[in-house]
Structures are given as structure tokens and as C-alpha cells.
Design brief:
Chain lengths: 195, 253
Amino acid sequence: MGKDERLMRLVRQGRTEYLEEIVSRHYDDVYRFCRFQTGDPQAAYDLAQETFLRFIQYAENSKDSPRAYLLTVARNVCRDHWREKKRRNETTLPDPEAGEPFGEDGGFLAPGERRDTAYTGTADAFSGRTETRLLLEDALLLLPEFQREALVLHYYYGCKYREIGKMTGVPAATVKSRVRQGCRKLRELLGEDVL
Amino acid sequence: MKEKKLREAFLRAGARLGPDPAGRNRAIAPLFRAAREKEIRYDPGWADLLRAQMSGIPAAVWAAQFCLLCALPLLEWALERYTDLEGWQVFPALSVCMAAAGLLTVQELAGHFSHRMAELEQSCYLNLSQLWLLRACCLSGTDVILVLALSGLRAKAHGFGMFAFAVYVLTPFFLSNLIFLSVFRNGRGRGRAWFGGAAFTGLSVCAQCVFPQIYDRIWLPVWTGILVLAAVCCGMQILSLCRRMEGEIVCWN
């Protein structure tokens, strides 16, 4: 049994002090996942906080390892976030066609603010790494949400297709195809020589 | 190669996207507060409940069940080795063993209906129905599993199929359980009812000796029907007893 599982067992037995250790151990992972998903540091802080609050609320019911459980909750929280944004019609996803640039930190720019890179704003312009300084995290934001989460979970967190399928509620074959399609798009955006 | 490159690119991106230490501390502080205020509401799953109930059954009951069930193959082996009995003639003896195992199960379960027991358990916030049901399933389930294992091992030696062997041995087990549960439910405090139940169980075993032809292949569907009916009735009796425990009348003995 790993340390995480031991901690969760203690938590389920009522030793809530170990919840703090779990939060500490996994905060960065959850924050990064939210950051990959939104591209916005402030939103990532808020979503990570929401994720952990939900985790703390239902900690005794978690059967998986805390990491898998937290990433599943984080994924749902990010989905809710996007859904809410769409509902309010406030989506700030960068639109390559319109030439909306990304912020210095990988997040979105405030209205009127521009990034001092060679980024020209169209998907075609991303194809040559030498012409742009588009980063992987920026390119990820141009992918559909389901491909982005599959790529991040697979390549950054090292989750297997089956595990991602369990987290996202789709068959492993679907996850595999999402990862493959996502990779192809990333290569188109960043260039074959980069990836 | 490409996979490795992608993984490295993601790890580099992840390193760029980490939280800044000040922001992290600010974000974590309310989470620690929430963790400290958290009250765990223990909600055990079926596996936990089962484990707890298994440990709640007295060791003496387990030992008695174990002895009876060990006696089953021993008896079967001894009869075959030292007597000239035919295959079917072993079954009445095995039936007695199974009926006794059923009686032990009911005996253990009946303990929960003893005087003031229900109030005591209710005041300790135990779910009596759940407890009863689980214990019934644990004890009966163990018997059934062991009998099935025995059937698998010994069926061929008697020239019966595994299915027929299991049916011939399990039918008296479920019938005796059904009889005792019915008597327990409807004939509490009436000695005659208990006596009648015991006599009926004994006679049902004797009938097998008097009419050996009931072990003919042709009667197997009838045996199977009786077994299924007895198992369903046993389940209904247990559920009905569980329901009877709920409601305003806690202790009804």
C-alpha cells in the first residue's frame, strides 16, 4: 500500500489531520492540471481550491487513490467552469482566426494587452517554431477540451488510457483516439521538429 | 521516440506552469482550515459491513459449523470405505448433517431475538435488519459454498453429476432452514410447534431411506423445484423477519 493510500485510510478512520498532508502533497498537481485546462493562473487557483474543497467534503467516500480522485474532481470542476463561462457567453478562449494573443504567463491577455512575441495569431503561423514562440501550453489551449485533458493526463501525469477512461467516463479506445488526434494537432501547431 | 519527446515537452511545460510559492501558501491556508473543521461521517461499504458481521459471529458457531461440514466428507468417505452402501444410501446421512448445519444457523440468528436484545442493539445504533440479513447470508453462504466444493470433489465417486449431488445435499439444508424459520416466526413459545418442526425434518430425512427411488434421475427436476422453492421461501422469511424488526415495535418477543 502506497503512502497516499495509507493517508486516505487514516482519514477515513477519522484522522482528519492527514487531510492537510494530502492537500500539501497534491496541490501542485491539481493546480497544474487546472492551469493546463484554463491557461489562466487566477482561474487555476480558484479551480484548484474548489477541487480541494469538494475533495475535503467527500473525502470519506473516496475509494481510488487520492491523486486519481483529485484529478477526476479537478476535471469535473474545470468542465463546470467552462460550461458556466459558455452559459454566460464570456468565453475567453483564444481565437487564432481573430488573432487574439496569449498572455506572458500562458494565460489570456487583458483587453488591449499584447504579447511581445512573433505570434501572428493564426493557426498557420504556429507551424514554424522558429517563426513563433508559441509554447506547448498555449497550443494545448487551441485544442478541444476533451483532447487537451486526455493529452495532459497521459503525457504529464503518466496516466494509462484505461485510467483516463475511468476518470472521464469513456472507453480506453476513445481516450487513445483522442490522444492520437490531439498529438497530430499539436504537431501541426508546433511543428514536427518540436514534437 | 516521439512519445518520449512529447512527454519531455509536457514535463517542461508543467515546470513552467507551477504555482508561485506566495500564491500557493495563500491558496492552501483556507484548505487547511477546511480540513481541520472536517468531520468524518463514516459510511461503510458492503465489504466493511460484511467483515464486521463476520467478526461478530461467535467463534463457537464458526467452530460448530466447521466441524459439521468437515464431518460431511469424512462421513461420506467412511460410509463408502467401510460399508457396502450404494451411492444414494449415503445421502440421508449427509442430509442429517446439512439439516444440523441449518439448525445451527437459525440458532445463532435467533439469539438476536432474545429478551431485550432488540432494545439493547437499537440503543447502540445498530441496524438490526441489516445485521440479521448479513449474518444469515454469511452463515448460509459458507455452508452452500462448502457443499458445492464437496459436490465437485465427490460427485463422480457416486456416479451422480455435480449438479445432482449438490441438489440432493442442499435440499434438506434449505428445507430445515425453512422449517425452523417458520416455527421460529409463528410458533414462538409453543413447545409443540418446535417439536412438530423437528419431527417433520426428521421424517423428511427418513423418507429418503424408505423410498430410495426418489434418488432416481427422473425425480431430479422435482428435487430441483423443491430446492428452489425452499431457497426462495427462506429468503422471503429472512426479509420478512427483518421488516418485522423495523417500525415502532422494537422488541416483539
